[in-house]
Every structure is written in structure tokens, then in C-alpha cells.
């Protein structure tokens, strides 16, 4: 079972620039730049939660209680594995050498003639990984811009119970 990821190195850039956000909300002044920058982060966070994957490069740690879970990582768009840490049967912390495993898509698999080490019962295996796409799909970026404009235009609660443009743009990008 995978536990929720923890961000250890936050994103350093957003998939939507301030200039793109300004253009979307049709403002050519800088008075609202701080607010728009916040809305960019809010929109990215919303899309990440909606799609189940990260959109801005970052380092995360995820924990699991079984080597079997490596067949399907709980985070999508993994660029690289930084480390895999575990506690061996004697209680000593260990780091799995990268000669034992390799990253294949959204799975960590054993290399030829390797096996997973024994772990201390009830201990967790911690995977540290760099996640995020090198670029995002145009429809995902547009969904973020639509969300930013909605939040900028209407700063109050709205009924969003129906199917929206935001939903239709992202429906094919959900990661389960």
C-alpha cells in the first residue's frame, strides 16, 4: 500500500507563466501580479489533484510497506529515482543500490538476476523520485488558464456542480 507523497524539493517553476496568465485574464498592468502568481500555483495544484499527477518538476518521497507495490508507483510522470531506502531485518537503515533495479515507465523493476532484499516487519520502504513532465499537453495548460481566469474573474464561491470546460479539457489526462 502506498502512502501519500511528501514533496521534499518544491517546484522551481510553473507550467504557466505570469505573462500567459495576464494575457488570459486580459490585464496589461502589474498591480495584480502577486495575486496572479498565487492563482497559477492554485490552478496547478487543482489540476494535479484532479489528474493525479504532478505538472511541475519536483522531488517527492513516497512510502510503501511492500516491494510488490513497485510494480505501479503511486506518482505519475517519474523522471528518475533518487534513492530507495528500507530497514533490513536487523533494524539497520539501508539504501538499495541502483544496480538492483531500474525505472520502467511508472514501475520499478528488478534487473536480471536480482531480488528484493528482506525488510524488517512493519517497516516502510521509502522511494525518493524526481517527478513531473518535461512539457505539458496544450489542453492541460489551457485548463489551467481557464481555471486562473475563473478564479480571477469571480472571487466568490460559485456552483461548479455541472460538467465544465475545465473537466472536458482534463478528462483524458487523469492518472489512476
Automatic annotation (TrEMBL):
Protein name in UniProt: Head-tail connector protein
Record-linked InterPro entries: Phage_CHP, Phage_gp6-like_head-tail, Phage_HK97_gp6-like
Source organism of this protein record: Mesorhizobium cantuariense
Amino acid at each position: 500500500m502506498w502512502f501519500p507523497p511528501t514533496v521534499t524539493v518544491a517546484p522551481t517553476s510553473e507550467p504557466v507563466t505570469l505573462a500567459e496568465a495576464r494575457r488570459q485574464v486580459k490585464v496589461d498592468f502589474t498591480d495584480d501580479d502577486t495575486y496572479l502568481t498565487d492563482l497559477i500555483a492554485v490552478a496547478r495544484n487543482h489540476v494535479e489533484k484532479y489528474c493525479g499527477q504532478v505538472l511541475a518538476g519536483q522531488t517527492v518521497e513516497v512510502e510503501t510497506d511492500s516491494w510488490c507495490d513497485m510494480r505501479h508507483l503511486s506518482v505519475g510522470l517519474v523522471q528518475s529515482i533518487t534513492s530507495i531506502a528500507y530497514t533490513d531485518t536487523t533494524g539497520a537503515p539501508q539504501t538499495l543500490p541502483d544496480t538492483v533495479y531500474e525505472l520502467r515507465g511508472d514501475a520499478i523493476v528488478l534487473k536480471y538476476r536480482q531480488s528484493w532484499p528482506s525488510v524488517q516487519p512493519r517497516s516502510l520502504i521509502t522511494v525518493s523520485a524526481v517527478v513531473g513532465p518535461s512539457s505539458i499537453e496544450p489542453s492541460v495548460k489551457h485548463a489551467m488558464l481557464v481555471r486562473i481566469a475563473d478564479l480571477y474573474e469571480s472571487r466568490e464561491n460559485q456552483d461548479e456542480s455541472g460538467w465544465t470546460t475545465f473537466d472536458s479539457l482534463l478528462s483524458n489526462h487523469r492518472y489512476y
